[in-house]
Specification:
about 190 residues, ten-stranded antiparallel beta sheet
Length: about 190
Amino acid sequence: DSSVSWVMEYSTRRSKTLDRVGGAPSHLPYTWPRCQACQQLMAFVGQLYTSERLPLEDHLALQFYVCDDCQEKRKWLHMEALPKPAPANDRGVGVRCGTQPRGYIDYTPIEDSMDQWRYNRLRLNEETLPDKHLRRDKVGGLFPYDGYEGPKITRQNRMVAQFCWPGVGATVYLYHSVQHGFYPYLYW
Protein backbone atom coordinates (compact mmCIF):
# COMPACT_ATOMS: atom_id res chain seq x y z
CA ASP A 1 0.00 0.00 0.00
CA SER A 2 1.13 3.52 -0.71
CA SER A 3 1.05 6.22 1.94
CA VAL A 4 1.09 9.98 1.39
CA SER A 5 1.82 12.65 3.97
CA TRP A 6 0.33 16.08 3.20
CA VAL A 7 2.92 18.42 4.71
CA MET A 8 1.58 21.78 5.86
CA GLU A 9 3.23 24.91 4.49
CA TYR A 10 2.27 28.23 6.13
CA SER A 11 2.05 31.51 4.23
CA THR A 12 0.71 35.02 4.68
CA ARG A 13 -0.89 34.78 1.22
CA ARG A 14 -4.32 33.21 0.76
CA SER A 15 -4.16 29.57 -0.24
CA LYS A 16 -6.37 27.24 -2.26
CA THR A 17 -7.88 25.83 0.96
CA LEU A 18 -9.83 27.35 3.85
CA ASP A 19 -7.36 25.69 6.22
CA ARG A 20 -5.51 28.29 8.27
CA VAL A 21 -4.35 29.45 11.67
CA GLY A 22 -4.96 32.72 13.51
CA GLY A 23 -7.47 35.47 12.88
CA ALA A 24 -11.19 34.71 13.01
CA PRO A 25 -12.82 31.46 11.88
CA SER A 26 -14.36 31.20 8.40
CA HIS A 27 -17.50 29.55 9.81
CA LEU A 28 -19.09 29.94 13.22
CA PRO A 29 -19.66 27.25 15.83
CA TYR A 30 -23.17 26.81 17.21
CA THR A 31 -22.02 28.49 20.44
CA TRP A 32 -18.62 30.00 21.04
CA PRO A 33 -16.64 27.67 23.35
CA ARG A 34 -15.79 28.63 26.93
CA CYS A 35 -12.82 27.50 29.01
CA GLN A 36 -13.65 24.69 31.44
CA ALA A 37 -11.31 26.18 34.06
CA CYS A 38 -12.12 29.93 34.05
CA GLN A 39 -15.35 30.08 31.97
CA GLN A 40 -13.97 32.84 29.68
CA LEU A 41 -14.57 32.75 25.93
CA MET A 42 -11.84 30.75 24.22
CA ALA A 43 -9.67 32.12 21.40
CA PHE A 44 -9.72 30.73 17.87
CA VAL A 45 -6.39 29.10 16.91
CA GLY A 46 -6.99 27.30 13.61
CA GLN A 47 -9.21 25.27 11.31
CA LEU A 48 -8.95 22.24 9.04
CA TYR A 49 -11.71 21.62 6.47
CA THR A 50 -12.94 18.34 5.06
CA SER A 51 -10.97 17.29 1.96
CA GLU A 52 -9.44 14.29 0.23
CA ARG A 53 -6.57 14.64 2.75
CA LEU A 54 -8.88 14.78 5.74
CA PRO A 55 -12.33 13.27 5.16
CA LEU A 56 -14.48 14.43 8.07
CA GLU A 57 -17.56 12.28 7.44
CA ASP A 58 -20.59 14.53 8.02
CA HIS A 59 -18.60 17.54 9.24
CA LEU A 60 -17.57 20.71 7.41
CA ALA A 61 -14.44 21.42 9.45
CA LEU A 62 -12.57 20.98 12.70
CA GLN A 63 -11.77 24.16 14.60
CA PHE A 64 -9.37 24.52 17.50
CA TYR A 65 -9.66 26.98 20.40
CA VAL A 66 -7.52 27.77 23.45
CA CYS A 67 -7.98 29.90 26.55
CA ASP A 68 -5.63 32.88 26.30
CA ASP A 69 -6.84 34.34 29.62
CA CYS A 70 -6.50 31.28 31.83
CA GLN A 71 -3.83 31.24 34.50
CA GLU A 72 -3.34 27.51 34.08
CA LYS A 73 0.22 26.44 33.25
CA ARG A 74 -0.95 24.44 30.22
CA LYS A 75 -3.52 25.83 27.83
CA TRP A 76 -6.93 24.21 27.56
CA LEU A 77 -7.61 23.04 24.00
CA HIS A 78 -11.13 22.70 22.63
CA MET A 79 -11.88 21.08 19.28
CA GLU A 80 -15.16 21.91 17.58
CA ALA A 81 -16.52 19.66 14.80
CA LEU A 82 -18.64 21.99 12.65
CA PRO A 83 -21.73 20.62 10.92
CA LYS A 84 -21.93 21.12 7.15
CA PRO A 85 -24.61 23.86 7.43
CA ALA A 86 -22.48 25.98 9.84
CA PRO A 87 -23.00 29.69 9.13
CA ALA A 88 -20.23 31.58 7.32
CA ASN A 89 -18.46 34.19 9.45
CA ASP A 90 -18.90 37.00 6.92
CA ARG A 91 -18.35 39.73 9.54
CA GLY A 92 -15.15 38.20 10.97
CA VAL A 93 -16.47 37.98 14.52
CA GLY A 94 -14.86 36.03 17.32
CA VAL A 95 -12.05 35.97 19.83
CA ARG A 96 -8.62 35.87 18.20
CA CYS A 97 -5.68 34.08 19.80
CA GLY A 98 -2.99 36.54 20.88
CA THR A 99 -0.15 34.03 20.49
CA GLN A 100 -1.12 32.55 17.10
CA PRO A 101 0.12 34.45 14.02
CA ARG A 102 -2.23 34.36 11.06
CA GLY A 103 -1.21 31.95 8.33
CA TYR A 104 -2.82 30.19 5.41
CA ILE A 105 -2.10 26.50 4.94
CA ASP A 106 -1.07 24.92 1.64
CA TYR A 107 -0.13 21.26 1.38
CA THR A 108 2.74 19.45 -0.31
CA PRO A 109 2.09 15.72 -0.86
CA ILE A 110 5.11 13.55 -0.09
CA GLU A 111 5.10 9.78 -0.59
CA ASP A 112 6.14 7.89 2.54
CA SER A 113 8.62 5.02 2.35
CA MET A 114 5.94 2.66 3.76
CA ASP A 115 2.43 2.72 5.14
CA GLN A 116 1.38 2.81 8.79
CA TRP A 117 0.57 -0.90 9.04
CA ARG A 118 3.89 -2.09 7.61
CA TYR A 119 5.70 0.30 9.97
CA ASN A 120 3.70 -1.06 12.94
CA ARG A 121 4.38 -4.69 11.91
CA LEU A 122 8.11 -4.16 11.48
CA ARG A 123 8.42 -2.14 14.74
CA LEU A 124 11.07 0.05 13.17
CA ASN A 125 12.95 2.85 14.82
CA GLU A 126 12.04 6.24 13.34
CA GLU A 127 15.71 7.18 12.93
CA THR A 128 16.22 4.33 10.44
CA LEU A 129 13.55 5.69 8.08
CA PRO A 130 14.62 7.80 5.09
CA ASP A 131 11.54 10.05 5.54
CA LYS A 132 12.62 13.44 6.91
CA HIS A 133 9.11 14.94 6.69
CA LEU A 134 7.44 12.71 9.29
CA ARG A 135 7.81 15.09 12.25
CA ARG A 136 6.60 18.16 10.35
CA ASP A 137 3.05 19.51 10.61
CA LYS A 138 1.03 17.26 8.33
CA VAL A 139 -2.20 15.47 7.55
CA GLY A 140 -2.33 11.77 6.69
CA GLY A 141 0.41 9.33 5.88
CA LEU A 142 2.80 7.55 8.19
CA PHE A 143 3.11 8.53 11.85
CA PRO A 144 6.18 6.95 13.51
CA TYR A 145 4.63 7.11 16.96
CA ASP A 146 4.77 4.18 19.35
CA GLY A 147 1.88 5.18 21.61
CA TYR A 148 4.13 5.00 24.68
CA GLU A 149 2.70 8.15 26.25
CA GLY A 150 -0.61 8.31 24.42
CA PRO A 151 -3.13 6.42 22.32
CA LYS A 152 -1.85 3.60 20.14
CA ILE A 153 -2.37 3.79 16.39
CA THR A 154 -4.59 0.92 15.25
CA ARG A 155 -7.06 0.36 12.41
CA GLN A 156 -9.83 1.34 14.86
CA ASN A 157 -7.91 4.36 16.22
CA ARG A 158 -6.00 6.12 13.44
CA MET A 159 -3.81 9.17 13.78
CA VAL A 160 -4.85 11.55 10.99
CA ALA A 161 -2.80 14.72 11.61
CA GLN A 162 -0.08 16.30 13.72
CA PHE A 163 0.74 19.96 14.17
CA CYS A 164 2.44 22.31 16.60
CA TRP A 165 0.83 25.74 16.47
CA PRO A 166 2.27 28.50 18.71
CA GLY A 167 -1.22 29.36 19.98
CA VAL A 168 -1.64 25.85 21.44
CA GLY A 169 1.83 25.60 22.97
CA ALA A 170 2.01 21.81 22.48
CA THR A 171 2.05 19.27 19.67
CA VAL A 172 -1.48 18.20 18.72
CA TYR A 173 -1.94 14.65 17.52
CA LEU A 174 -5.35 14.33 15.89
CA TYR A 175 -6.95 10.88 15.94
CA HIS A 176 -10.03 9.36 14.37
CA SER A 177 -11.51 6.52 16.39
CA VAL A 178 -14.26 4.17 15.25
CA GLN A 179 -15.68 4.39 18.77
CA HIS A 180 -15.18 8.11 19.63
CA GLY A 181 -14.86 9.95 16.29
CA PHE A 182 -12.25 12.73 15.97
CA TYR A 183 -10.29 13.75 19.05
CA PRO A 184 -7.03 15.61 19.82
CA TYR A 185 -4.24 14.39 22.04
CA LEU A 186 -1.72 16.98 23.27
CA TYR A 187 1.96 16.22 23.79
CA TRP A 188 3.74 18.73 26.03
